Amino acid sequence: MIRALPILLLAAPAMAQDISVQNPRAYGWWLGDELVQQVQVTLPPGAALDPASLPRARAVDYWLDLRAVERQDDGNRISLTLRYQNFYAALEPSTRQVPHFPMRLMDGSRLDLPGFSYVTSPLRPILAPSRPDQLQPDPPYHLIDSRPTLMRLALSGVALLAGLLMLSRHQGWFPFHARAARPFTRAARRLRRLPEPEARRSLHRAFDAAFGRVLIGADLDRFLAQKPQFAPLAERLRGFFAASDARFFGAGSAPDQDIAALARDLGAIERGRR
Amino acid sequence: MTDLPLSDWRARLAEAEARLNDVVLGQSRTIRLLLLSALCRGHVLLAGDVGTGKTTLLRAMARALGGPYARVEGTVDLLPTDLIYAAHIAEDGRPRIEPGPVLEQGEDLAVFFFNEINRARPQVHALLLRLMAERSLTAFRREWHFPHLQVFADRNQIERDETFELPAAARDRFLMEISVEAPETADDRMALAFDPRFHDTTRLISDVVPGVLPYRGLNDLAQAIQTGTHTSPALQRYVYDLCQIIRDPHDLKIEGADTARLIRGGLSPRGMQYLVRAARACAWAEGRDAVLPQDVRAVFVPVMAHRIFLTPAHEPRRDTLVPALIEAAFARVPVPAA
């Protein structure tokens, strides 16, 4: 008993609370009407309502929905507006009892939202025959003009697409992720099947592309300074250009060279394989 | 002396080049080009700032060639007859007409200097034109022939007042137009200013061995170089493509120029011929028996730049546009072409 005392004390209703209620009128409600209950709670200083204990919009019973709960705080004074909707299809005037609702304060003390009762009545005599022409005409319907919405949709689609394009351009994603030009790799692939002078020319075009301008033998040092990754091949490149000079411009002839192998090695360096 | 073997000529060329570089500091490119012009028997126009050593260089060059030389200063009131005739009152009080600067040395004249050529009037240019093109002129009722003549002219680019721009035809007859800049390195500039050796040009050029490149042999040497230096079909194609793309540069990109309307004319067939001659000489001077693309590149600007005529809208910016055009052409034209 003594051990249970603190629990009892906790559960005891707070003394300083002050509830004033404005209930909906007690009579004259029909099926579908909205009943509004206004509750004002003045809390003692320092106390606060546990927001989890507020009533939630829900079906209270099969004949009553709590559609909305609005809360307004003004200092320690809380105004609650509860909007019920009556779904009781009365066959005769009948009193309905809306149950009270327990709430909690943060200190654990309890607070009751008082219930209320109302009388609801049938809309028409229960025995009167029902005819289709008694139905109210349908309310006139309004066509919603969807064009501005579609326009906005299209605009945002375009903006989205443009944004994606810019983003992917900035990030170097799909359409902009073109791989660095690899002239030597391409040349190596192409000149496998070419006979000597064409293969040689083809490799010269690859040098031009890699250098960004036409590369002649005299430029080789500048090329190697600009692309030092090819420096290990310097001797073979010198040999290649010397042979080209002899073959294309010289009066004599030049020894044969394995151009395909040179192109393969250049391509491998270009792809970072060496 | 005049029928030296080719290898001996090469040694002499190297000797002359070394000596000239010793006399005129920081102008190795200009010196190389002047020597090439001598190997091609072509006339040269030097253009540049005042006091960059143009005249010293030409005097040293004349000394290296040996042979008689004549010199004329261009002035506004210079007349063609002043080049040919010298009029004076003789001791007996009677007027005499003697041969002028050009004829004074006879038909053996090897070098003719024309200082400040743009100060002379067009009549003088016309006479010079014939002298350069045909190496001959008419005076004292007869034809004079100058088989060894090489004309060097210079022109300063600072003043435009009281000057007469050379007509296109006259410029076309110069093998090269070399622009002479002041030496670039600080060492050269300081040496030129402080070393007393450079203060007296006459003493300075006495370092050059007279006639190290004997002028009488140059015609035969030029002939031998032109026939003996091979130009392959691939190289001929390269030269043709270069000239073609400069004549019609519409698919080149040059900053600040509409390349479709850049060129008004120029690059005459004579220009191409001169280019090939100079490239052959360049290859020979490098010790090769065949012309390579780098020979064409080395001589292209001095031989061709003054033969490119731009449309009036672009002409004022010629100093930047023409080098950019040539640079773009060399960057674009593939060699060896497919």
TrEMBL record, chain B:
<dbReference type="InterPro" id="IPR027417">
    <property type="entry name" value="P-loop_NTPase"/>
</dbReference>
<dbReference type="GO" id="GO:0016887">
    <property type="term" value="F:ATP hydrolysis activity"/>
</dbReference>
<dbReference type="InterPro" id="IPR011703">
    <property type="entry name" value="ATPase_AAA-3"/>
</dbReference>
<protein>
    <submittedName>
        <fullName>AAA domain-containing protein</fullName>
    </submittedName>
</protein>
<dbReference type="Pfam" id="PF07726">
    <property type="entry name" value="AAA_3"/>
</dbReference>
<dbReference type="InterPro" id="IPR003593">
    <property type="entry name" value="AAA+_ATPase"/>
</dbReference>
<feature type="domain" description="AAA+ ATPase">
    <location>
        <begin position="40"/>
        <end position="184"/>
    </location>
</feature>
<dbReference type="Pfam" id="PF17863">
    <property type="entry name" value="AAA_lid_2"/>
</dbReference>
<dbReference type="InterPro" id="IPR001270">
    <property type="entry name" value="ClpA/B"/>
</dbReference>
<dbReference type="InterPro" id="IPR041628">
    <property type="entry name" value="ChlI/MoxR_AAA_lid"/>
</dbReference>
<dbReference type="GO" id="GO:0005524">
    <property type="term" value="F:ATP binding"/>
</dbReference>
<dbReference type="InterPro" id="IPR050764">
    <property type="entry name" value="CbbQ/NirQ/NorQ/GpvN"/>
</dbReference>
